[in-house]
Design a protein that fits this description.
By secondary structure, the chain is an all-alpha fold. 58% of the residues lie in helices and 0% in strands. It is elongated.
């Protein structure tokens, strides 16, 4: 099969595995989502959701985040990795939102990536989930799965991986594909101990086949019977 046929096979398989894949960061508006995605860098969504339960009750607007000392905000997100730099970026981000965007999160990729702590991945997540603009955000799961399935090369940058996915995946499927690949990488094709023995994409995964070879050899190895000592 060619590249697009292979991609279609992958998309259909992921649809069967994770038909209801979605953004797992809890939020109720674009501002909360932006804060949550910023906090999620090098941190699990599960931990972010534990922290934002109280955070989003205390802070409702950019003004609220700027109304406390930096040290207090750091304490509120202390369980999050890199909490000091993230707290600083949140306050800088909120200042820009107030001064430049009337306190609202900009609904453009360019506007989002100008905000402190917001990179291309975060901007794509916000654009697709908060504003309904098709996008493929490449995080560690999307990067890993794309390379394992040979959609991208091992040395491709995150941007190149994104560009290759955008080329192969129909635009109206970008956002859902992003979520399904994340679910696949998070719950099935894990960084450690991926579920290769039961993977429906094993037939097109070189790494998976390589992982399975030792198991197959061990299973098929015939043990020679021990000969009883004579005499």
């Amino acid at each position: 099969m060619n590249a697009k046929q292979k991609m279609r096979h992958i998309l259909d398989t992921l649809a069967d595995l994770f038909p209801d894949a979605h953004c797992e960061l809890n939020h109720t508006n674009p501002f909360e989502l932006t804060i949550a995605v910023l906090l999620s860098a090098q941190c699990t969504d599960e931990m972010v959701n534990k922290v934002t339960v109280g955070l989003f009750q205390k802070y409702k607007s950019p003004e609220d985040y700027l109304g406390v000392p930096l040290e207090e905000l750091e304490g509120d997100i202390r369980r999050i990795g890199l909490f000091r730099s993230k707290a600083s970026n949140i306050q800088k981000l909120c200042r820009i939102l107030i001064d430049k965007y009337d306190g609202e999160v900009p609904a453009s990729h360019e506007g989002l990536t100008e905000l402190p702590g917001v990179g291309r991945k975060t901007a794509n997540v916000v654009m697709s989930n908060a504003f309904g603009v098709p996008a493929i955000a490449v995080d560690t799961h999307v990067d890993r799965v794309s390379k394992r399935l040979s959609i991208a090369k091992e040395d491709d940058s995150l941007l190149v991986v994104e560009q290759k996915l955008m080329k192969l995946v129909p635009r109206d499927e970008w956002t859902l594909t992003h979520h399904r690949i994340i679910f696949f990488g998070r719950y099935h094709c894990k960084a450690q101990n991926p579920q290769c023995p039961i993977c429906p994409l094993l037939d097109i995964c070189k790494e998976g086949k390589g992982r399975m070879k030792p198991a197959i050899k061990t299973k098929n190895r015939i043990k020679k019977p021990k000969l009883a000592n004579e005499g």
